[in-house]
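Reference record
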Amino acid sequence: MSAFRTGFISLVQPVLRSKIGKRLTICSLLHMNFALPIDHNYETPSLLAFFHPQPAYPFHMLLIPRIEIPDLLSLDVQNPAFLQDVFKTAQQIVKDYHLEQHGYRLILNGGSNQEFPILHFHLIAEINPKTTKEYS
């Protein structure tokens, strides 16, 4: 991560954790994602996927819907297109980064475990293939 991004995140993190900050971040993700200091690794009509700005794992990518869905209970199960897109994109990421060789997890947090008030998935792995000799 660049020094600018690291500094930017540490500067705005207290604001982002506030109610107003969370609303602004949701608005930015849904409507102005071009302005966020992230690389859009994967984009589809219904979601964005990018590396977590403060990863908790060596490989940590977020998959976020382009429409506001607060949590799993708010997801419209009568319209499976978004979930199909999530799994298709996750499969592509797993293939592109060779995660099947080392293992991976696709996580969805909810309730008190969901720190950010928008549905999102974490695709994580204990090894980042980009930094291993096997990936080269």
